[in-house]
Amino acid sequence: MPTITIDGTAFTFKEGLTILQVALENGIEIPHYCYHPALSIVANCRICLAEVWAPDPRHDNRLEPIPKLLPTCQAAAGDGQVVYTDSPKAIANQRAVMEYLLINHPVDCPVCDQAGECYLQDYSYQYGRGSSRFREQKIKQPKKDLGPHVLLYMDRCIMCTRCVRFCREVTGTGEISVVDRGATSEIDIFPGVALDNELSANVVDLCPVGALLDKEFLFQQRVWFLKRTPSIDGITASGDNIFIEHNGGRIYRIKPRTNMEVNTYWITDEVRFGWRFVHDEDRLTLPAVAGEEPFEDSEAPIAYETAYARVTEALGAAQSIGVLLSPMLSCEDAFELARYVSQQEAPVAFAVGPVPFAGADKTFPGGFRVYAEKAPNARGVRRVLEKFSANVLDYDAFVGRLRRGDLSVLLLTGNYPSDWTTKELLEALGERGGRFVVLIDTLATPLADRADVLIPSATWAEKAGTFENAGGRLQAFERAIKPIDYVKSESQIALDLIAAASGSSPAVYDPLATRKQMADLNGLSEFVSEVHLPPADEKIASDMQVVEL
Ligand code: SF4
Ligand code: FES
């Protein structure tokens, strides 16, 4: 294997890598702005330049200095090379580049959203001069509205062209380009063509400085206050790996989490901004029981007790039970609810709730796929239910059975980001007083008014579980924020109902324990052996430490 020495340490490497790639793979930091592993290499920011010595075949492979500094992002790593990123020449270059990049950069860190996660800040501290010799007028450039999600503060741009290359190479849409030349060059969109593709907001993550900004996150929160929980797309069937970033029980933004086997470095705007319903004003927060006065907040324990008693009574007396489990639920939710209902004496018909689709799947030139299926776990819910029943119905077949007057007691679940109920379902249910309907859901819908017992449930961000994505990959996600008000996860509701039926005290939902039970009781051993767990070391759970100055 070829060997390269970087700043005094020798590393073996695979042929074809650049010096910067070898360094990054081995945890050596070389500053870089324009380089990104998913984009073409342009070597235009010049901060990564290093002094390189290489064996010279004309002189018996004697180690000789290459006269000029080399851009390590572009220069191929070679056997026997010795690289210095901390030699006087390399350091002089780093300082010169930082001084140059800051010539026209405004000193507006206190009001910049990027502050705290800005490479210009970090590299100024680590590699900058600490003072500027520039006394002339800074060039002022305008703020621009690039599209529905992205703003450009051109003053802050360092012309790394990551955003330009992203739109050319990953989305193939080419909305962003460099206009003009030299000191007056600018990033811009073509007149009349907004930055409006399904992946547009990824340029915000790509921008190493605060030039490209997320409109929805603008001035919402300083990034050092955010806690970060690794999670999975809870909106579509992609299984994209994400971070939910939150503070004080509120989500502020969702960011992509790199997983080369799933979403690489990107997520869709739909996944990025699809969390709003978690804090929707129409969230259901307390149980409601037909014939009882609406419960007050202070009566939450009584509300649950009353709701559970009514459900226990209704299911115990049922002739036949229909269970509709939503594709928005986790596998654990599906398992615990199915386990609860299977303990009843009446025969049970299981069905998977409606699976929303929008158009067809779309693959971008860079290979990223946007899924038409707008539910995270249709396969996982079905996989679990098939262990309880040989004939799991789809939504239409379920509604068909309701129309025939079949199924006397229903347990329905929602947890969709918007109203999911259909006219067909509401018509088939008929008026209150006929079939007994238990609804476990998150948002107020017409079905909530029809339900005999309504139990509010937690969204995916408020609970832990497992989703199976469109590719059949099982991925666990963690609870990011506490459930709002008095809501509970469907798993916890099921455990409470199991306890209410037997008169015992309820178990506290633990996803690991549930997955073990799934393997032990129902032969779902893949939930012990094949679930991809989120990396614990990428989680930020505590507040930033206050440093005494
Ligand atoms: S806007 Fe950001 S990503 Fe685009 S060229 Fe400027 S610094 Fe680079
Ligand atoms: S990262 Fe090498 S020149 Fe920009």
What are the SSEs and their pairings?
Elements: E1 3-6, E2 9-12, H1 19-25, E3 49-56, E4 62-65, E5 70-71, E6 82-84, H2 88-102, H3 119-127, E7 143-145, E8 150-153, H4 162-170, E9 176-179, E10 186-189, H5 202-206, E11 212-214, E12 227-232, E13 241-247, E14 250-256, H6 269-273, E15 288-289, H7 300-316, E16 321-325, H8 331-342, E17 348-352, E18 362-363, E19 369-370, H9 378-385, H10 395-403, E20 409-413, H11 423-429, E21 436-441, H12 446-450, E22 453-456, E23 465-468, E24 474-477, H13 490-502, H14 511-522, H15 526-529
Parallel strand pairs: 1-6, 16-17, 16-20, 20-21, 21-22
Antiparallel strand pairs: 1-2, 3-4, 3-5, 3-6, 7-8, 8-11, 9-10, 12-13, 13-14, 15-22, 18-19, 23-24
Helix pairs in contact: 2-3, 7-13, 8-9, 8-13, 10-11
The structure holds iron/sulfur cluster and FE2/S2 (inorganic) cluster.
Structure commentary:
The chain is 25% helix and 19% strand. Strands 1, 2, 3, 4, 5 and 6 form a six-stranded mixed β-sheet that branches. Strands 15-22-21-20-16-17 form a six-stranded mixed β-sheet, sandwiched between helices. A three-stranded antiparallel β-sheet has the order 7-8-11. It has helices at 19-25, 88-102, 119-127, 162-170, 202-206, 269-273, 300-316, 331-342, 378-385, 395-403, 423-429, 446-450, 490-502, 511-522, 526-529, and strands spanning 3-6, 9-12, 49-56, 62-65, 70-71, 82-84, 143-145, 150-153, 176-179, 186-189, 212-214, 227-232, 241-247, 250-256, 288-289, 321-325, 348-352, 362-363, 369-370, 409-413, 436-441, 453-456, 465-468, 474-477. Strand 3 (49-56) and strand 4 form a beta hairpin. The chain starts with a strand and ends in a 20-residue tail after the last helix. The mean pLDDT is 94. It contains 15 helices and 24 strands. The longest helix has 17 residues, at 300-316. It has 549 residues and is an alpha+beta fold. Bound molecules: iron/sulfur cluster (SF4) and FE2/S2 (inorganic) cluster. The site of FE2/S2 (inorganic) cluster (FES) has 12 residues, from loops.
